[in-house]
Specification:
This protein is α+β, with helices and mostly antiparallel strands. 40% of the residues lie in helices and 22% in strands. The protein has a five-stranded antiparallel sheet, with no helix packed on it. The radius of gyration is 23 Å and the shape is extended. It starts with a helix and ends in a 12-residue tail after the last strand.
Length: 131
Amino acid sequence: MKVNKTVKSILITLFVGLLCFFGFIYYTFSSFDFCDGKIYSKADLINNYNSKRKEIEDLKRYIISVSNGEPCNIGYQRSCLGKYYYNLFDNSIPDSMKSKYNDSCTYILYNDKLVLEYGGGAVGPQCFPTQ
């Protein structure tokens, strides 16, 4: 019954793989702090909005999307199906990453903390226009 042995070993391998995967997920998120300890009231949020209303309304006109993280990715403008982004880094981009962020197609390195990005759509140019 060589087939049964093969199936059994495949099932054991899958089980061990899944066990490792879920163990990794548990380990990663068990030490992750989702709360910074601050509790904001409705009044805090309203006061913050009122004090920054002009800036928020100005940004709302221009920003298409925002994704938090390192880098912070801000979707700025559409061009047909493509989209332009600003990638803002908190710290200077390490030298080891500069070649990735300066490929002159998807990314253009503007300075040590700002990278311009163009994401092509389903059709049309996939790189920054040459103009």
